[in-house]
Design a protein that fits this description.
The complex is a heterodimer of chains A (307) and B (324). Chain A has one domain: TIM Barrel (Alpha-Beta Barrel). Helix content of chain A is 46%, strand content 13%. Chain A has a nine-stranded parallel β-sheet. The radius of gyration of chain A is 19 Å and the shape is globular. The two termini of chain A are 33 Å apart. In chain B, the strands form two sheets. An eight-stranded parallel β-sheet of chain B has the order 8-7-6-5-4-3-10-9. Chain B has a two-stranded antiparallel sheet with strand order 1-2. Chain B has 324 residues and is α/β, with parallel strands linked by helices. Chain B has one domain: TIM Barrel. Chain B is globular, with a radius of gyration of 19 Å. In chain B, helix 2 runs parallel beside helix 3 and helix 3 packs across helix 4. Classes of the chains: A alpha/beta (307), B alpha/beta (324). The interface between A and B is medium-sized, with 12 and 17 residues.
C-alpha cells in the first residue's frame, strides 16, 4: 500500500496555527514523523490560500524538502499557488491534487501537470456534483479524465484516478458504490490508471473514538478490490497493521483471519456473513457492525456500535 | 398474460405502540389508539400485514393561536380559546386522538406557567376521552418546565410527551419513564440523526414500544420529497430488522402545510391559483396523503375538512386489503 500521508492538513488547529506562524520546525517534524511511519508521499493541504498561495506553497515545499525526500502532493484548488510551489520542488516527482471533470479545472490543471512533469490526481467529479453510482464515476474517468490526460500528453502512469470516498455519516449510500467503482476502474482502460482515495473521508463527522475502526475496516474492503494507493494517516498503527495483515496474508490471529475474510469476500463480490465472525469477541462484533454500515445494510448512527 | 407480482419477505417489523390508557389500565381514556405492527411497505397488503390503520390526530392549542390562518379560525370558530371545547369539537370532527400544543406565552403575553399548562391538559382530558399527545412550546427550557408537571399530574395516562430532540430529551424521557407515558422523538429530516436519537432515548431505559419518531417532512412543494425519502429509508431499515428504526412514525402535515404561502396567503396571488380555502385544504390533504404513502402512522392535521378527506383516503387504502 502506497500511503500518501494526510497529516499536514489545514483542518487541524495545530497546522492552522503553525502555518500562521510559519513554524518551519512544526512542519518538518510532522513530515519526518509521517515518513518514518511509512508514508511514501506527503499530502500538503493548506486550503485554497487565495491571498497568499504564491508565497505559502513555495515556502511549505522548501521547508518540507529540507528534511524528507518523498514526493509532495499539493492539495489545493489554487492552481496558481500550486504552480509557484512546483517551481521550488527539487527532489521527487510531485503530485497535483487535484483536477476534476469540471470544464474549467480539466482545461487548466492537466496542462500544469504536464508542464512540470508531475503526477495528477483526478477526481470523478463532474459539474453536476458527485455521482452516487459506481458506473457513473467510472464513466467520468473514461469520458473526461483519461482522454484529457492523453490529450495533453500526460502518461497514464502519471494519472491517479480518485473515485471519491464520502462519509458514512450522511452519504452512506456512496460507500458500497465506491468499492465497485474501484473494482471496475482497474479493467476499464489498458494500461489501467493508478487509483487512490482519501480514506479518512469515510469517517468525517464520526465521533473521534470510532474513526480509526471505520477507516481500517473500509481499508480492508477496498484492498479486497485491489486498492494500492491512498491518502491516509500513516501514524494510525492499527490501520497499518490491517494493511500488513492483508498484504502478507497473515492468518496467524483470529483478527487477521477476519480481515482477510472480509477482503476476500469483497473480492469475490460476496458480502461478509455473520458466520465469518466470532460473536464472543467484542472486537470482531465491532468490525461486523462496521461492515454492515459501510455496505449500507444498517443505517449509520453515532451510537451504531452500542446498538 | 398472467403477471406475477414480486413479493418481498421482510425479516423485521414495525413495533406496536399503544397511546392512552383505559381506566382498567390506570388511565381515564374511553379508548386507546394502537399504531405500528407493519410487516411490509405502506399498503402492500398482498405482501405483508398492516394490522393497525394509520390514525389522524387533530392539533389544538391551549389558547387562541396567534399565527394560525384565518381559514382555520373560521373553521373552528369560537372554540379556539378554550382547549376543552376545542377538544370536543375535534373529537366530533373525527379525530382518532388529539395533539395539544402549549403556547410559549399565555393570553397576557407572559410565559405560560406550569399551573396553566397542567390545567389546560386536565381540561382536555376531562372534556374528551380520546388519547392525547402533548407538545411543549418547542424551546428546551420551557418544554422541560411545563412537561414535567404535566407528566406528574397525569401519571398513568400513557400520554405522548414531546418534543424530544437531540439537544433536549433527557428530562422528558425521565419524566415519561417515571409516570408511564410515551415520548415523541423529532429529528430534522436525517436518517442517521433519527436513529441516533432513538438509541439515546432507549439507552436511558425507556422501552422502544413507548417511543414514536417524528422524522419531520416539509410540505408539498417545499421539500416533501426529502421527507419522503427519509421515511422510506427508515421504514425499509425497520423491515430489514434494524431495531432502532422500528418505531411508528408521527408526522405533522397540518403544521407543514399551513405555514406555506399557498395556504397562508389569500390575496395578491395569481387568479389561476383558484379558491383559497379549497387550495389550502388540498395542500394539507395532499401533504398528508403523500406522507401516508411513505409510512406515516400518526398524521397531525389542523382543518376539519382535511381530516375528513384524509380519513376517507385511509379507508380506501386499508380496504384494498379485501381485494388481495
Amino acid at each position: 500500500m502506497y500511503i500518501i500521508g494526510e497529516n499536514i492538513h489545514i483542518i487541524s488547529e495545530k497546522v492552522k496555527e503553525a502555518l500562521k506562524n510559519r513554524d518551519a520546525k512544526f512542519f518538518q517534524e510532522l513530515a519526518v514523523r509521517q515518513v518514518e511511519a511509512g508514508a511514501q508521499a506527503l499530502d500538503l493541504n493548506l486550503g485554497p490560500r487565495k491571498a497568499d498561495g504564491e508565497e505559502v506553497f513555495p515556502w511549505i515545499a522548501q521547508t518540507v524538502e529540507k528534511v524528507v525526500d518523498v514526493p509532495l502532493s499539493f492539495d489545493s484548488t489554487n492552481i496558481v499557488g500550486i504552480e509557484a510551489g512546483l517551481k521550488k520542488v527539487t527532489k521527487a516527482q510531485p503530485i497535483i491534487n487535484s483536477t476534476s471533470a469540471e470544464q474549467e479545472r480539466l482545461e487548466k490543471v492537466p496542462l500544469v501537470a504536464k508542464k512540470y512533469n508531475t503526477k495528477l490526481i483526478a477526481l470523478t467529479l463532474g459539474k453536476s456534483g458527485i455521482p452516487v453510482a459506481a458506473d457513473d464515476r467510472v464513466n467520468i474517468a473514461l469520458e473526461y479524465l483519461i482522454p484529457r490526460a492523453l490529450e495533453v500528453g500526460l502518461p497514464i502512469s502519471d494519472l491517479i484516478i480518485d473515485p471519491l470516498v464520502l462519509t458514512v455519516s450522511g452519504c452512506q449510500e456512496y460507500c458500497p458504490h465506491l468499492i465497485e467503482a474501484i473494482r471496475t476502474l482497474q479493467f476499464a482502460w489498458d494500461p489501467p490508471p493508478n487509483i487512490s482515495v482519501g480514506l479518512s473521508n469515510v469517517s468525517n463527522s464520526v465521533p473521534r473514538e470510532n474513526r480509526s475502526l471505520i477507516n481500517r475496516v473500509y481499508c480492508a474492503m477496498l484492498m479486497g478490490v485491489g486498492l494500492k494507493m491512498m491518502i491516509a494517516d500513516p501514524l494510525d498503527e492499527k490501520l497499518k497493521e490491517t494493511i500488513r495483515i492483508i498484504e502478507e496474508r497473515d492468518e496467524s490471529t483470529p483478527l487477521g483471519r477476519l480481515y482477510l475474510k472480509i477482503a476476500d469476500r469483497i473480492n469475490a463480490m460476496e458480502e461478509p456473513t455473520i458466520d465469518d465472525i466470532d460473536q464472543t469477541d467484542p472486537e470482531q462484533v465491532a468490525i461486523w457492525k462496521t461492515v454492515q454500515i459501510l455496505l449500507n445494510k444498517v443505517i449509520y448512527a453515532e451510537g451504531y456500535l452500542e446498538q | 398474460m398472467p403477471v406475477e407480482i414480486p413479493k418481498d419477505k421482510w425479516p423485521g417489523s414495525v413495533r406496536t405502540v399503544t397511546i392512552g390508557a383505559l381506566p382498567k389500565d390506570g388511565g381515564t381514556r374511553k379508548c386507546t389508539v394502537t399504531v405500528g405492527g407493519e410487516t411490509t411497505m405502506p399498503f402492500l397488503h398482498y405482501e405483508g400485514e398492516i394490522p393497525n390503520r394509520p390514525v389522524v390526530a387533530i392539533e389544538i392549542m391551549d389558547r387562541q393561536p396567534d399565527d394560525w390562518s384565518p381559514l382555520l379560525a373560521e373553521a373552528w370558530k369560537d372554540v379556539m380559546d378554550d382547549p376543552a371545547k376545542w377538544a370536543v369539537a375535534a373529537e366530533q370532527a373525527g379525530a382518532d386522538l388529539l395533539v395539544l400544543e402549549l403556547s410559549l406565552n399565555n393570553r397576557n403575553g407572559e410565559p405560560t406557567t406550569p399551573d396553566e399548562a397542567v390545567s389546560a391538559v386536565k381540561s382536555v382530558l376531562a372534556a374528551s376521552g380520546l388519547p392525547l399527545i402533548v407538545f411543549g412550546p418547542g424551546q428546551a427550557e420551557a418544554d422541560n418546565a411545563l412537561l414535567v408537571p404535566i407528566s406528574e399530574a397525569t401519571k398513568g395516562e400513557r400520554i405522548v410527551l414531546g418534543i424530544c430532540e437531540d439537544k433536549n430529551y433527557r428530562t422528558i424521557v425521565a419524566t415519561a419513564m417515571a409516570n408511564d407515558h410515551l415520548v415523541s422523538a423529532r429529528t430534522a429530516m436525517d436518517v442517521n440523526l433519527a436513529k441516533q436519537l432513538n438509541i439515546l432515548i432507549s439507552d436511558m431505559g425507556l422501552p422502544l414500544d413507548r417511543i414514536l419518531m417524528d422524522p419531520t417532512t416539509g410540505a408539498l412543494g417545499y421539500g416533501i420529497e426529502y421527507g419522503f425519502s427519509v421515511m422510506e429509508r427508515l421504514r425499509l431499515a425497520a423491515l430489514q430488522g434494524d431495531k432502532m428504526t422500528q418505531l411508528p412514525m408521527i408526522v405533522t402535515p397540518g403544521y407543514e402545510a399551513w405555514k406555506i404561502k399557498e395556504s397562508k396567503v389569500g390575496e395578491g396571488v395569481p387568479e389561476t391559483w383558484g379558491d383559497w380555502l379549497n387550495r389550502a385544504i388540498n395542500w394539507e390533504t395532499l401533504t398528508a396523503i403523500t406522507l401516508l404513502e411513505s409510512g406515516a402512522d400518526v398524521l397531525v392535521l389542523r382543518h376539519p375538512e382535511s381530516v375528513k378527506r384524509v380519513k376517507r383516503a385511509i379507508d380506501e387504502l386499508m380496504s384494498a386489503k379485501e381485494l388481495v
